[in-house]
């Protein structure tokens, strides 16, 4: 099903200037939809996320990202050369004021098979975690276990989550800054119970694009602070840092993201990933090998443009 984006403003534009503006908005919106489809299709292909005959369980929280994920996957399914099924799943954790009617109404209208799982994890978390302590880790653990069980019951072969590029980068920095690890959030992984494959088809999508898409499609967003837990402060700071980089140093965030798929273990320090102890000269020159005495930085084109811009700003 091709999503047709026809802003109502286009129909209601009265003056020539209005019409031009409305046409430009419609053009930008179509570009955004195409970009999302292209990036999600690319991630699915690169990581072989979805195969013929798969039943993909799309986890829907009511936030902008999971709505975008479901919407784009439904578009791609219509165009895909393979057959796969989609089932949308929401876990109603019985948080206070959770508007339980919103998702079923939306999903009915969309005509997609869905399942709402009702489990009062909110009360469990409140009972077990002392007041003032962070509840997210137990809450996520409970949620994960329930979703794996539901995937089994529904016969889902893949579990799709709505994490995007910025979530992946934030996790990468959090792990590095606070966990002393080079570790991100994979686009595809085996679940920790070893029974499921979890996929993140929005892995190449920028958060600002899911924000714009959610506005454009008027998704009925459910607020994510109903549990009363504060947003992780460290994640918030990293998000702010990345937004500042995007403004000040175009290309930097893209370069960091590309770096996640261009790892050179021989030029890091992890002895379990590279046999430094057994390293011996082969006598064969390697053009990509030792550049230890070369001038820094070893700029890529995008990094170079940042450096040039930096100097121009001096
Ligand atoms: S923010 Fe609330 S709902 Fe989300 S993981 Fe934390 S405790 Fe659970």
TrEMBL record:
One of its GO terms (biological process) is tRNA thio-modification. Binds 1 [4Fe-4S] cluster per subunit. The cluster is chelated by three Cys residues, the fourth Fe has a free coordination site that may bind a sulfur atom transferred from the persulfide of IscS. Its EC number is 2.8.1.-. GO terms for molecular function: 4 iron, 4 sulfur cluster binding; ATP binding; magnesium ion binding; sulfurtransferase activity; tRNA binding. [4Fe-4S] cluster binds at residues 136, 139, 227. Transmembrane segments: none annotated. Residues 55-221 form the tRNA(Ile)-lysidine/2-thiocytidine synthase N-terminal domain. One of its GO terms (cellular component) is cytoplasm. It comes from the Bacteria. It catalyses: cytidine(32) in tRNA + S-sulfanyl-L-cysteinyl-[cysteine desulfurase] + AH2 + ATP = 2-thiocytidine(32) in tRNA + L-cysteinyl-[cysteine desulfurase] + A + AMP + diphosphate + H(+). A motif (PP-loop motif) lies at residues 61-66. This is tRNA-cytidine(32) 2-sulfurtransferase. It comes from Noviherbaspirillum sedimenti. The gene is ttcA.
